[in-house]
């Protein structure tokens, strides 16, 4: 169904809270959120849950307002998405146009990712890399213990067949460095993998250096698992 991108959408609750409810019900917000009447009807059937989701939505708003305000003060608010989102979150809006909703819909997933990155920044050594070989060797060996997992839709490091949403598995290695392994959502071995990474695994392969929001980490574009 097509919706007028300029027509205002009116919600009975914070749109972020509505998205949190939809995620909890395994509904894709992108398929429902632009039909505000349907969303409001759904929320009205879960008023008890909406109280908690409204509080969480406010936490998400404050998190990104503070984060992007700090980026602005440091002069690193370097994408139009972040600038537009900061402006949107700084307004006290009752009606939302389609572009607003698209931005707000992304926040629950982003928040989960950023909380994991914040946890990694506290627990791991995320300082800049000083020593690395070029080209990268293909026999680097490391022991990895999982820290957390989230989904992502952009900035994929490893090669993939498409630009679909994918899984990001974060690990800590024996040197206290964060490591990222990306995986397709429809990987046929995903259930085995989820069980496997509950334990420390030993991998060997090609390891590369990256940085994301001042978190420096390794990624494994190619690897094999030796044992757990």
Could you explain how this protein is built, in words?
The protein has 228 residues and is an alpha+beta fold. The protein folds into two domains: 9-105, no CATH class; 122-227, Beta Barrel (OB fold (Dihydrolipoamide Acetyltransferase, E2P)), CATH 2.40.50. Helix content is 41%, strand content 25%. It has eight helices and seven strands, in the order E-H-H-H-H-H-E-H-H-E-E-E-H-E-E. The strands form two sheets. A five-stranded mixed β-barrel has the order 3-4-5-7-6. Strands 1-2 form a two-stranded antiparallel ribbon. A hairpin with a 5-residue loop joins strand 4 (166-172) and strand 5 (178-184).
Percentage of residues in helical conformation: 40-55%
Structural classification: alpha+beta
Quick one: CATH class of the largest domain? Mainly Beta
Q: How many strands?
A: 7
Low-confidence stretches: none
Structural Rg: 20 Å
What is the molecular shape? globular
What's the architecture of the largest domain, going by CATH? Beta Barrel
Count the helices. How many? 8
Measured between the Cα atoms of the first and last residue, the distance is: 48 Å
- The topology string of helices and strands comes to EHHHHHEHHEEEHEE
Structural domain count: 2
- How is the largest sheet built, in terms of strand order? 3-4-5-7-6
CATH topology of the largest domain: OB fold (Dihydrolipoamide Acetyltransferase, E2P)
């Amino acid at each position: 169904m097509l919706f007028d991108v300029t027509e205002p959408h009116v919600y009975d609750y914070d749109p972020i809270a509505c998205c949190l409810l939809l995620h909890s019900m395994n509904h894709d917000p992108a398929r429902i959120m632009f039909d505000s009447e349907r969303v409001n009807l759904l929320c009205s059937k879960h008023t008890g849950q909406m109280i908690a989701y409204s509080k969480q939505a406010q936490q998400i708003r404050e998190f990104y307002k503070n984060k992007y305000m700090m980026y602005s003060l440091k002069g690193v608010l370097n994408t139009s998405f972040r600038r537009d989102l900061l402006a949107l979150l700084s307004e006290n809006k009752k009606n939302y146009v389609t572009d607003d909703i698209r931005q707000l819909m992304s926040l629950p997933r982003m928040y989960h990712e950023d909380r994991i990155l914040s946890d990694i920044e506290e627990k791991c050594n995320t300082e800049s890399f000083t020593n690395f070989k070029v080209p990268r060797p293909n026999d680097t060996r490391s022991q990895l213990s999982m820290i957390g997992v989230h989904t992502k839709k952009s900035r994929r490091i490893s090669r993939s067949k498409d630009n679909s949403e994918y899984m990001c598995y974060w690990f800590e290695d024996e040197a206290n460095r964060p490591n990222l392994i990306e995986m397709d959502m429809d990987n046929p071995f995903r259930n085995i993998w989820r069980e496997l990474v509950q334990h420390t695994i030993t991998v060997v392969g090609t390891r590369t250096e990256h940085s994301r929001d001042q978190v420096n980490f390794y990624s494994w574009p190619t690897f094999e698992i030796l044992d757990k």
